[in-house]
Amino acid sequence: MPSKAQVNPLEDVVAGTAQAKTGPEISEMVPQVARDRAVAVTKTAPSRRLQPGDLICGTCGEGNPSTRRFCSRCGASLFEAVQVKVSWWRRLLRKLLPRRGPKVVKIGSRKYGRDDGTPGAAARLAKPTDVKGAFRRVLRIVRNVLAVMILLGGVLYGAYPPFRHGINNRYDSIKGRITNDIDANLSPIHAASVTANSTAKGSSPLNAADELLNTYWLAPWSDSSHPVLTLKFSRHVTLRKMILHSGAGSSFVQIGRPASLLLSFSNGETETITPQDGSQSQTFDINHADLVTSVQIQVTGINPGSSGSDVAITEVELFGYNT
């Protein structure tokens, strides 16, 4: 019988092999949820045509409808997304030509009735005639028409020089009367007849006293025979002021303008005035025209035009007292 100190080699080999197969002890782990690997998001162009009010994702650049809260492409929050703005010309069109559509009314509001079961809201909505609504619609139409007219007038004023010239002259005439260039107690003096010793073909002396700034009296000029415009009145008048619109309107530079005028009155008095060479209206005082029945306006000097040797006067306005 072998002793305890002796060792069986075969048992040692078997024990070592079993220990090698077993290896170190591994602890238990809780099962984990498998997650997808994060993919880098790059900012690209929107996949849809952007409309006013759409939200542009700041992460991927996708355009989203304004009703969304998260991006349809990358899922990022749209809380700080940039909103597509309406262009300035679309905003202008909306103001000038508002769209017609159904009117949304909140039933139960104070404006249209009570929400206590009474038929106030329904009765007001079914009302066949709405005076305030009709007035607002008419006012809106008038406002839109005026806006379009002002817009077209501004374009015409800037692009068409004759129209601009006529407006400026009319404005200066009205401004002169308002700012007391003409005394408040003076009345306009209208001639009963207007004649001239010479008039160019196609023109008329009446054009110088018709109160229109788009017509003018045109006469040939020469040093030996000065053009004379004669205004006769139906009664005795006293002249105190004269407004002169010099030149030929839109052809101001091309046609000559008066440089000096000699006024001869029926009472034997005379007076000389020297207009400035400008297209704006000019106001002159008259001191020697008491109780007269006519006045002759003789062109004694001109500022020559760039073409021809004619001289033109657009309008002569006289102010004073009727007897």
Q: What is the H level of CATH, i.e. the homologous superfamily of the domain at 184-322?
A: Galactose-binding domain-like
Q: In CATH, what is the class of the domain at 184-322?
A: Mainly Beta
Per DSSP, the total helix count is 5
The fraction of residues in strands falls at: 25-35%
CATH architecture of the domain at 184-322: Sandwich
Shape: rod-shaped
Enter the CATH topology name of the domain at 184-322: Jelly Rolls
Element string (H = helix, E = strand):
HEEEHHHHEEEEEEEE
Helical residue percent band? 10-25%
Give unreliable regions as ranges: 112-118
**Helix-strand category:** alpha+beta
**Oligomeric state of shown chains:** single chain
Largest sheet: 8 strands, antiparallel
Q: Give me the Rg, rounded.
A: 47 Å
Distance between the amino and carboxyl termini: 172 Å
What average pLDDT do the residues reach?
81
Q: Find the count of extended strands (DSSP E, 2+ residues).
A: 11
Commentary on this structure:
The chain is an alpha+beta fold and 323 residues long. Helix content is 24%, strand content 26%. Among the domains are: 129-159; 184-322, Jelly Rolls. It is built from five helices and eleven strands, in the order H-E-E-E-H-H-H-H-E-E-E-E-E-E-E-E. The strands form two sheets. Strands 4, 5, 6, 7, 8, 9, 10 and 11 form an eight-stranded antiparallel beta sheet that branches. A three-stranded antiparallel beta sheet has the order 2-1-3, with no helix packed on it. A hairpin with a 4-residue loop joins strand 8 and strand 9. It is rod-shaped, with a radius of gyration of 47 Å.
